[in-house]
Amino acid sequence: MYTSSDLHLRLxxxxxxxxxxxxxxxxxxxxxxxxxxxxxxxxxxxxSLCYQLPALLMPGTAIVISPLxxxxxxxxxxxxxxxxDNYGVAHFLNSSLTKLQxxxxxxxxxxxxxxxxxxxxxxxxxxxxxxxLKKLNISFYAIDEAHCISEWGHDFRPEYRRIRxxxxxxxxxxxxxxxxxxxxxxxxxxxxxxEMTNERVFKTSxxxxxxxxxxRPKVNVNRELVKFIKQNEGKSGIVxxxxxxxxxxxxxxxxxxxxxxxxxxxxxxAATRTKNQDLFxxxxxxxxxxxIAFGMGIDKPDVRYVIHYDIPKSLEGxxxxxxxxxxxxxxxxxxxxxxxxxxxxxEKFKQGKPVAEQEISKLLLMETVAYAETNVCxxxxxxxxxxEDYKQENCHNCDNCLHPKKQFDGxxxxxxxxxxxxxxxxxxxxxxxxxxxxxxxNAMIKSYNHHKQDVFGMGKDxxxxxxxxxxxxxxxxxxxxxxxxxxxxxxxTQKGKEFLKNPERxxxxxxxxxxxxxxxxxxxAGGGGDEVLLAMLKDLRKSMAHKKNLAPYVxxxxxxxxxxxxxxxxxxxELTNCxxxxxxxxxxxGKPFLELIGRYVEENEIIRPEDIVVKSTPKKSAxxxxxxxxxxxxxxxxxxxxxxxxxxxxxxxxxxxxxxxGTKLNINYYLRQKVDEDKTExxxxxxxxxxxxxxxxxxxxxxxxxxxxxxIRLVRIKFLVEVAN
Length: 725
Known about the structure:
Blueprint: H1 4-15, H2 24-32, E1 37-40, H3 47-57, E2 61-65, H4 69-82, E3 90-93, H5 99-110, E4 116-119, H6 121-124, H7 127-134, E5 138-143, H8 163-170, E6 175-179, H9 184-193, E7 200-203, E8 211-217, H10 221-231, E9 236-240, H11 244-256, E10 261-264, H12 270-281, E11 287-290, E12 303-308, H13 315-322, E13 332-338, H14 340-349, H15 355-373, H16 378-385, H17 399-402, E14 407-409, H18 411-423, H19 430-438, H20 443-447, H21 464-476, E15 480-483, E16 489-492, H22 494-501, E17 507-509, H23 531-548, H24 552-555, H25 558-567, H26 572-575, H27 583-603, H28 618-632, H29 637-644, H30 648-660, H31 668-674, H32 677-690, H33 696-703, H34 709-724
Parallel strand pairs: 1-6, 1-7, 2-4, 2-5, 3-4, 5-6, 8-13, 9-11, 9-12, 10-11, 12-13
Antiparallel strand pairs: 14-17, 15-16
Helix pairs in contact: 2-3, 14-15, 18-19, 18-22, 19-21, 23-25, 23-27, 30-34, 32-34
C-alpha cells in the first residue's frame, strides 16, 4: 500500500506536480484500496488524474470507458507524454483502428505492458472485445463522462446504460464513475444504473470563480461575434453552435473576416476533425467553431473564451461547455447569445418523439430559458441547479452582478405565487402557474377549469414571463421546490408556508425583457456608443425627415446611427461600414451626418477606433449579386428562391437587406403579379404618411387582416426603393 509521501513522489515523477488538487489524493487512496467511487468534480478540477495515477501504480490494466474517439486520442497522447515508456503504457480500442493497429493493441495488452486502455461503450458490447478483456488482469473500471448514463443528463448515450451488464461479463473489479456535470436526479440515476451501493461520493464545489458569465440578446450576432473575437485577438476560444450547418457557416464567416477559425463536427471525416483539433491545440488556429462533440476532456488549459452562438439544450450541457474556459485558473469569458426563437426551434425538433422524451427535453430547455432570462446572479442559478447552495448574493463576475437590475418589494407577488401553487394542489409546473396568475386562458388551463379559480387573472397586469421570473426567484429562495421526476411540478416548502403565514418585505429583481433576433433591431442599452453624439444624430435625422416629409427611419435606421457613434465615419466610404448604409443611401443622406460627426470629433478631440468592417462570406455575397442580377432580369421570386436554396421568407429578408443598405431594386414586375393595385397604393400610402416605424406587425394591425405579411413586405420594399433610396 502506498503512503501519502509515496503518492506525492509518484505524482511528481509521472506528472510533474508537487501536490494534489482538492480531493484527488483521497480519491486515489480510496480506489487503490479496492473500493468503488463516484466523483463529481468541475471541468479543470483534475478528474483524469484520479484514475491515471492509480492505473500506473496498480498491477494490471485499467479500463477507461470514454464517449469520444477524439477524447481517447488526446488522453492517450497525454499519458504517453508523462511516462518513460511512451508507447505501450496507454492504448485505445475503437472503430478508428486499422487491422494492423488492432493487432498491436492486442499484443501490448496480452503482454501486460498496457496500464490504461480507453474503450468506447459500443466497443464493450462486441463479443470479441469481451473475450479479449476477460484474459486481462483488470485493476479497475473508470467510467468517464458518467452523466451519459442518465436519460435526464444532457448527453444521454443508450450504450452507457449497458456498461454494468458488460462489466459483469468481463470480470469484477472496483468502479470509479466521474463527471463534471450532474444534477441530484442524474447522480441518483447513475448510481442506480451502475448498481453502486457501497461507493463513496467525492463531491467538489461546482463553482468556477474565474469564469465570467454573460447572456447577450441575439441581435446582429455575427457582427457582435467578430467584434468580440477581434477585441480578444491572440487568445484561444471556442464557439459552440447547435447544428453542423451552422458550424460550417460561422467558421467560413469568421475566416473571411481574417480570423483563424476552423470547424469541428461529427459530419466531418475523422482525419479532418483530428487535424483541426491538433491545429487548435498547437495554436495554429485561434478559434474552433464546433458542435458539443468538441472539447470533452480536451486538455487545453488556456482557452480564454467560450461563446454559445446558439443557446444550448440544457444547463448541464452549458455548464460543461463553459467549463472548457480558463482551466488553468486564468481568465475565462463565457458569452451566450439568446433568443427565445431558438428555444421554439429546439422544441419543434422534438415533435414526433415519445411523450416522456419530449417532456424531459422541454423541462431541460425551460431551465435554460430561466438561466438566460434571470436577473439573479448567474453563478447562484447555475450552482442551485446542481444542488449547491451559493451563499453570496453578488459573485462580482457575471453580467447580472456587475450591472444589477432594479429591485422591487415583491412580498405580495410571492404570496400570490405560493397561494396559487397550493390552490392548484401542488400538481403543476411553473409555466402553468404563471399562466393562471396572468389570466392566460389556454386549452390546458380550461381542461382543468383553472380559469374558474379565484386566483386566475389576479396578476393580469403583468406578463407570463414576469410571473415565471417570480416563480424562479421563489425556487432560489427555497420557498418552492421543483420535482424533476414529475416534469417540474411545483410544491411549497415549509419555508414558503411560513412566509405565506407571516409575509415580510422581500426584494425581487424586475423582469428583464430580452430582444429577439433581428437584422435591423437597434442595440440594447449600453451598446458601447457615444450617447451625446447619438442624441445629436437623432435630432439631425428628425429635422431632415421633417424637411423631406419622410419618417425618420427612412433616412437612417437606429442601428445605422448606433454604428456611427462607434465608428465615427468621416467619409462616404466609411459611412457604408455602418449597418444598413449602402453607397446609394450614403450619397443621398450622408453629407450632413458626416459634417456633424466631423465637427464633433474635432471639438471633442475624439480618437477614432479602427473601423469594424464585417465582411460577408463569399456565398452570401454571391447570393446578393445573384439576387440583384435576377431582379434586373425580372425573374420570378420563386425561381430566384429555388436557385439560391432559400425559402421565400429568407429571400424577402435578403432583398430587404439589399434595399435597406441603399441599393435600388425595381420589383414592380413581381409586385403586379402578387398584389392588387389598390392594396399596393394603400400600403404604400401607409408607409409614406402614417407609419412611425418600418414594423410589418404594426402595419398589419393598422391595415387589417386582409393584408398578408408578404404583401406588406413587398410594398415596403417598393416604398424604400422609391422614397428612401
